[in-house]
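Weekly structure sync, notes
Attendees: PL (lead), two postdocs, one rotation student
Agenda item 3: pending single-chain targets
PL asked that the sequence for the first pending target be pasted directly into the notes so everyone works from the same version. It is reproduced below exactly as submitted, 149 residues in total.
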Amino acid sequence: MTRTYKRPIQKVLLTVQTISKLSAAAKAIIEHAANNRIFLFYGDMGAGKTTLIKTLCSVLGTEDTVTSPTFSIVNEYQAANDKIYHFDFYRLKDQTEAMDMGYEEYFYAGAYCFIEWPEKIPDLLPPHYTNISIKALNDGSRQINIENF
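Predicted structure, written out during the meeting:
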């Protein structure tokens, strides 16, 4: 089964000049996502996906230490009123590994899910999500494209 391309419902483009401006961008992302709780992060290695997720978690009120779940695949954080699940699917060999870990219990729990390397699980993604593409620019700033589906 292959995933068909869907047209975004809404799009926003942000440019973040410095890391000190990332908090404002994270607030804008959460606001733009509205009721979406699933966030898919695309970008080259080192583009800033994990750094943005750390900031999003902070904006959502977690006091937990946010780290990349590169080897554990998923980390759980407690925010003020919600759980947050942070996934890094980079090391998955195929989608069955995500199925074996019970991805559905996370994706459909109503919690925030921040998913790095979603291209590793294209057939398992839920129908509604916020797509975030991050691109490092030559001047060191980041261009963040946000699309709600």
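Discussion points:
- The helical segments are 22-33, 49-59, 95-100, 103-107.
- The domain at 10-148 is CATH 3.40.50.300 (Rossmann fold).
Action: rotation student to compare against the earlier draft before next sync.
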